[in-house]
Amino acid sequence: MPVGADHQGDIIMPNMKMESIELSAWFGTKQALKDINISVKTNAVTAIIGPSGCGKSTFLRTLNRMHELVPGAKTTGQVLLDGKNIYAPEVDPVMVRRRVGMVFQKPNPFPTMSIYDNVAAGLKLTGARKGQDLDEIVRKSLQQATLWDEVKDDLKKPGTSISGGQQQRLCIARAIALQPEVILMDEPCSALDPIATSKIEELIVSLKSDYTVVIVTHNMQQAARVSDLTAFMYLGQLVEFGETTSVFENPKSELTEKYITGQFG
Amino acid sequence: MHRLLDVGLEQLTVMVYRMGEVAEKVIDVSIRGYMNGEDATAVVHELSDILATMTVEIENKAFELIVKYQPVASDLRIINSYMKIAYDFERYGRYAWDISFTHKKLAGLDKCAGSSDLMQKLAGRVLEMVSKSVDALKQNDGEIARSLAGVEKEADELYFAYLDELAEATVQNKCAMCNLLVSRFLERIADHTTYVGESIVYIVSGEKLSLR
Lengths: 265, 212
Fold this sequence. Notes:
- In chain A, helix 7 links the parallel strand 7 and strand 8 (212-216).
- Chain A is 34% helix and 25% strand.
- By secondary structure, chain A is α/β, with parallel strands linked by helices.
- The chains are: A alpha/beta, B mainly alpha.
């Protein structure tokens, strides 16, 4: 029996934005994910926790088909976005990535671009918006990322001229500008100080009113603070998935208990 | 794997166990004083004060662990429950004092319990419940904790039966007044033993239940 298999599928949610079904992933011959079944609730924050190498970042990257960009990588099973399999042959992965945006561990603004151009870059590349409309989207995106007030007078300055925390919010604004439906965040605060982390956490919570958020984090207190649902993964398998308060107060699996109380990891 | 939190949890556990021993003793001294017609006020007062101090110490330790380690899961359940149990033990001390004080003030240390079979039984049940609550804590035993529910029901029945007996009595005296108040204090102690039991069940299983 898979690790903690008896705790999978505990949650039945009618308002699911995404769902992985029997999802497995490989790097060459090495299997990184084994039959993962997770439902991602609409307008909620879902946290994925687990020790290093458990497959949480790989899982995140299967949700917008970034995993397949790695040479030799393979995926089986399904990932449903609004009920449709994003791995179906007719689906364009670029469109998937537009609907399911990604924010990475380290802030990675385009170094040669201004703050404004960083936010507008995705839109320009896709030819989606021009002129006044673009200004409006940049402003709204920066406002939603709670960065507008701090940079509104410096939009022409390089994106790398602001602090690390501001750069990460700039990256979130860049993701928002494309108006995705889901935002994936891969340890978005791991390179930030506590104040910058706090701002990103506040932002994550505010974003869920407009987006569905999935966050991978090593920081369990962060998962407890920002998420509505928490999944614990171990050795490529889903051990436990449930309401965050329940997982952190009274986990069903002994393995989860041991991990979140710091008895291994 | 030994964690920094484990050292603090062990200290907290020792503190709560010690408090349980003092709580059991104060109830024993108080109830036996009442049943035997002895003045227990001095000892009960001292022990009750010790319990009040211990409650503060346990709260401080619990807060220290929360602030330092942000505990979750069973660690959090233990710390939260120990704080509640410490409060319940403090209440044991307070009611023990109320019994001894009332017995001395209203009944002049007469053997009032001897005048009522129901009061003797009620006092006996409460002694049993207090002892069980401390055993359940020390053994971390949810089954002992759950068994408090049945005894609490008996204690409630004895309390109400005594009130009926008192209501029907044609002559009231100082022992009746004393027993009336003492029966109420005993009933409240019985309630607090079930709160302790509920906390222990929560520690062991995470289940939130009512034993009353």
